[in-house]
Amino acid sequence: MFLFGKMKYLFLIFKVGKFKTFITMLISIWAYAMFWGWSFAAGFVGLIFIHEMGHVLALRLQGVKSSAPMFIPFVGAYIGMKELPDNAFAEALVAAGGPLLGTLGAIGCAGAGLATGNPFWFALASSGFLLNLFNLLPISPLDGGRIIGAISPRLWILGLAGAVFLFFLTWSPILALIVIMGSVQMYNNYKKPGVEKARYYTITPMKRLIIAAIFLSMLALTTVGMVAVQAPLDQFQQRAGIAAEKL
């Protein structure tokens, strides 16, 4: 405040520096820190930010403007699009950008764990892989639902069934919200005029294969990543248990 002097300069910095994104990030870090501590909360929010920037980059590559990511504690983050994608294939590519970059962020954390031997990084990597794997659940509004919709919107039924099953396993309010939103999305899509729906989902077989390959590859990569980082975490827990017994 002293350095910039007048409020107009401070306002300019807030505007250019995406101040709203910064503030919502801090609020999310504070919320997660109450359960996980500051270091892990900051790393987890950082992984969410990387995920959202994947969507932003995918939109920019298609020439679509978007807002900066906005964070919601215990829900995640979102970006606002200035315009909608032209067809389901373009929407699927935008949706795939998040899990793709987010998974690379988790791989980076795993690499830091291998380089340092610090279990903190393996735990963060595991959370990153789980975050992106969860987002691949094939139901709207999750990324997996928008990706799989380019192959066939009928596959949303499988995603809805999977989300309902997971809800009864965990009783998670987030999953309950996803089930409700997914059901509304399926209903709205069913009520769309046939001509409009046909135009939006008219995709060549080759593009459908590309989307299917992208989806299955990310599904495999996030699953393998979770399994891979679990081994060093188990080893750390075993060493901690042995040390506790000696004490």
Can you walk through the features of this model?
With 247 residues, the protein is mainly alpha-helical. It has two domains: 11-84, no CATH class; 86-247, no CATH class. Helix content is 76%, strand content 2%. It has ten helices and two strands, in the order H-H-H-E-E-H-H-H-H-H-H-H. The protein has helices at residues 7-16, 19-36, 38-61, 88-116, 119-135, 143-148, 156-170, 173-191, 194-200, 205-246, and strands at 70-72, 76-78. The chain has a two-stranded antiparallel sheet. Strand 1 (70-72) and strand 2 form a beta hairpin. Helix 3 (38-61) crosses helix 5, helix 5 (119-135) runs antiparallel to helix 10 (205-246) and helix 7 (156-170) runs antiparallel to helix 8 (173-191). It is globular, with a radius of gyration of 20 Å. The termini are far apart. The model is unreliable at 1-17 (pLDDT under 50).
Series of H and E elements: HHHEEHHHHHHH
In percent terms, what proportion of residues is strand?
Answer: under 5%
Calculate the terminal CA-CA distance, rounded to whole Å. 51 Å
Radius of gyration: 20 Å
**Mean pLDDT, rounded to whole units?**
86
How many DSSP helices?
Answer: 10
Q: List the uncertain runs.
A: 1-17
Spatial ordering of strands, largest sheet? 1-2
- Main beta sheet strand tally, sense and closure: 2 strands, antiparallel
Structural class: mainly alpha
Question: How many beta-strand elements?
Answer: 2
Q: How would you sum up the global shape?
A: globular
Number of separate domains: 2
Helical percent range?
Answer: over 70%
